[in-house]
Amino acid sequence: LAGHFAAEAVIRHQQAHQLSELTEVVLRRSEFAVDFAAASLDELAKRNLASCEPAALQAIRLHVYQRSAIKDVRLVNPDGSVICSAYSETLEFDKGWVNRRDMLPSRDKALSLFRVEQFGGDALGVLRDINGSSALVAIVGINASLFDIMPAELRAHSEVILALSSGEKLGEFQTDAGKSLLEPISFDRTSTRFPLHATIGLEHAVLSSWNHEAYWPALAVALGLGAIFGILLARSRRMEGPVADLDRALAAGEFKPYYQPIFDLRTGQIKGCEILVRWLRRDGSVVPPMNFIPLAESSGRIQAMTWQILGSALAELKPLLRANKNFKMSLNVVPGHLLSAGFVETLRRKVLTARVSARQIVVEITERDELDDLARAAAVVAELRDHGFRVAIDDVGVGHSGLSRLKGLGADMIKIDKFFVDTITVDASTTTIVEMLVALARDLHMGVVAEGIETEEQLRALLASGVAEGQGYLVAPPLPFARFSELVESRRAAQSGAAVSNDAALVA
Ligand SMILES: Nc1nc2c(ncn2[C@@H]2O[C@@H]3COP(=O)(O)O[C@H]4[C@@H](O)[C@H](n5cnc6c(=O)[nH]c(N)nc65)O[C@@H]4COP(=O)(O)O[C@H]3[C@H]2O)c(=O)[nH]1
C-alpha cells in the first residue's frame, strides 16, 4: 500500500512540475513575440520611418509584410490616439482602440502593452515611445501556435490562456470552445518583464483517471506517464528557443567554471580566484556569460546554473584549497538567489560535503539588479559570515551600491569596477574616487580588489591609491581549470625559487 501511495505522489509531482513548465513555455513564447515587436519598432525608428510620409508608410508596409507575427504598425500620439497606420485603408483603426492611460507598462517602462480587437480576434498592441510627440505601435497577432503545446491526450480536457495582467484575455486555446472545464486545476505564470500572464487549466478528472490506470502496475505507469510527458515536452520545447537551450545545457552539464587569478598587486602572488561561468556548447563554442546570464536570471535558471558551476569548481579546486588554506575562491551570486529560501543552507551543505573550509569561499554579490530589501540582504550577509563565508560586493562604483548600502550590507570586501581601473591613469578624478573607496573600505574594515587590470601603469596607480589586490588580463584572463592550475603551479615554483627582488615588475 505504501508503494502505491508513493507512486501516486510521484505521478502528481511530475505532472504538476511538467504542467507548470508548459505554462512557462507559453509565457516565454509570448515574451519572445513582444521582444520581436519591440526590436522591429526600434529598427523602424532607427531608419527614421516613424512618419506618415507616403514613402515611410510604404517602407513600413514592406517591413510588416516580411514579419508574419506583426499584423500592422501605427504611428500614434502620446495619448495613444492613432495618427496613421500602415494598413489604414482597410481598417477602422480606432474601433476598440485603447487610451494610453489604460495601457500596461513593461517592468522597465520602455514598452506599453494593450489588447486590440482586430482581425476577427484579439491581438496584442506593443507601444514604444519614439520622442515626445509620437510613439510607434506594433500589432502582434496571437498565433495559435502559442497554444498547441498541450499533450494531445489532455487537449480535450484543458485550456491554455494568455492574458494581460489586468485580466483581459489575449488568446485562448480550447478544443471545445465555450465549454467550461469540470473541476479545473490550474497552473499560472506571470512574466517578470511584461504585464503578461499564462494559465493552463485542466480537468482534475484527467489526472485522476490516469492515476486510476496507475493503480495496478503503479510504478511502471508512473514512469511511462513521465516518459510521455517528457517526450511531448521535449517536442514542444525544441521549438521553444533559448530557455529550452539553457535547460538542455543544464541537463548536459555544459556550464563550466573558468578561473581568473586574484593576485597581490605588490608581489604578484596569486591569492585566489574568481569563478566566471562559461557555456561550453557541444559544437565546441564557448559562450560568454553576458550572452546567457540575463536570460538565466529572468527564466529562473540562474540558481541551478550557479550550483552546477560551484559543484564543478569545488571538485576541481579542492586539492588546491586544501593545500593552501589562505587561497580563496569567489563565486558570483545574483541578489535574487542570495535572498531565496535555503540559499545559505544549500551553500553550506555543498561546501561542507566537498570538505572545503567556508573561510575560503567568497560570495560575490553582483549588484546590477538593485538589492531592494537591504535589511534582508544584510541579514543573509550576516548569516553567511556567521558560518565563516566571506562576502564581497561586486561592481562597486557602477552598480547600485551607494555608499550607505555598502555600509549597511556588512560585507568583507568590495570589488572596484573595471571602469575605474580603465580611467585611473587618464583621469585625476578617478584617482580621487578610488582613494575615497579605499579609505571608506578601511574605515569599514573591508578589503579592496580591483577588477580588469590590463597594464603595469594601472597597477602602479592602483597601488599608489592603496589598493592591494586585483585581477585582470595583465596576469591572466579567466582560464579553464587545467591552464589555471598550470599558472598557479608555475608561479609558485618561480616564487619559491628566486628570491623576490623587484616588487613592481613581478606580475608582468
Ligand atoms: N576587458 C577586460 N575584461 C576583464 C579583465 N579582467 C577580467 N575581465 C572580465 O571582467 C569580468 C569580471 O567579472 P564581473 O565583474 O563579476 O562580471 C561578470 C559577472 O557579473 C557575470 N558572471 C560571470 N560568471 C558568472 C556566474 O557564474 N554567475 C553570475 N551570477 N554572474 C556571472 O558576467 C560578468 C562578465 O563575466 P566575464 O565575461 O567573464 O567578464 C569578467 C572578466 O573576464 C581585463 O583585464 N580586461
UniProtKB/TrEMBL annotation:
EC number: 3.1.4.52
Species, as recorded: Bradyrhizobium zhanjiangense
Domain EAL: 239-492
Pfam family, one: EAL
Primary location recorded for the protein, binned into one broad class: membrane
Membrane topology: Multi-pass membrane protein
Keyword Signal: yes
Domain of life (superkingdom): Bacteria
Protein name: cyclic-guanylate-specific phosphodiesterase
Entry keyword set: c-di-GMP, Cell membrane, Hydrolase, Membrane, Signal, Transmembrane, Transmembrane helix
Catalyzed chemical reaction(s): 3',3'-c-di-GMP + H2O = 5'-phosphoguanylyl(3'->5')guanosine + H(+)
Localization terms from the record: Cell membrane
Gene3D superfamilies found in the cross-reference section: EAL domain
Family annotation (InterPro entries): CSS-motif_dom, Cyclic-di-GMP_PDE-like, EAL_dom, EAL_sf
Enzyme class: hydrolase
Keyword Nucleotidyltransferase in record: no
